[in-house]
């Protein structure tokens, strides 16, 4: 297939948001409509969306203390959050100053970053920050003052630093047994792979990620994330017996994956009879304080006879994406998802939920970006 044909077959912008989405945000905010305006207000008050933001690029990022190198991955997750927030602010406001700042952050990293290392946690960095950076760049690709060679350099960084780690992890799982790593590790690297495939117009990379979602051997494939379906329609999720912080992280990463695929006309939300919705409803119901069925979970490392209440009620800005897709767009009944979305609305982004990595694992701002009507 000729490169020009390959390029035209991807929707751009087409990772977490399409141009139709940006047009809706812009129109609704201009009309001071709710809840978009509340979502916009959260964005513009966040320091990451400020023109005063200064990037801190590093040649090497370390996540997990390897006994030698100081961990420095916080600079990357803060800069990724800033690039995304500024990109959104540009798209909605039309003010090119925010575009210039977003591009400056992306350029600083593409000129500097050569690798990611540390403990096995380096694969969390390759996944989470990979999908976030690729999304910021996908928004900015239409900016006329971002030179083609600079966008190309950014794509090269994503293909040379992030994608090989995403692929390596999903194929070899750091040399561990296939069920050793929790679902969020797979989902993060799958999301990065999908986003990079879209950004770089690489169907092979995109297809690799979709195939893993459907049939992957690790815990990130959909039948392993939502591994037990109950007669009431709820689906027990792989990290339910671990803790609810990571269980809700699965909502974030699964949502990002399905949304990006949806914007490329692949309906993974509906895959296997809305299997993702059954898992999200399960997580939402339990974290709203209600009882859910639970079956003892075992893998080669653990046996978890009861659901974990650790972190129960954890607040992450992850619900609007699923709520607007399943309830508003598709008209499905999802009462716990609806309540969870209402509870967190308006959703903030990185920096609104604490200074640590958990507050930055998801890009957020879902009330502004995903509300349909």
Automatic annotation (TrEMBL):
The keyword Signal applies. InterPro entries: Alginate_lyase_dom, Chondroitin_lyas. Pfam families: Alginate_lyase (PF05426). GO terms for molecular function: lyase activity. Gene3D superfamilies: Chondroitin AC/alginate lyase. Residues 55-287 form the Alginate lyase domain. Keywords: Lyase, Signal. This is Alginate lyase family protein. It comes from Dyella koreensis.
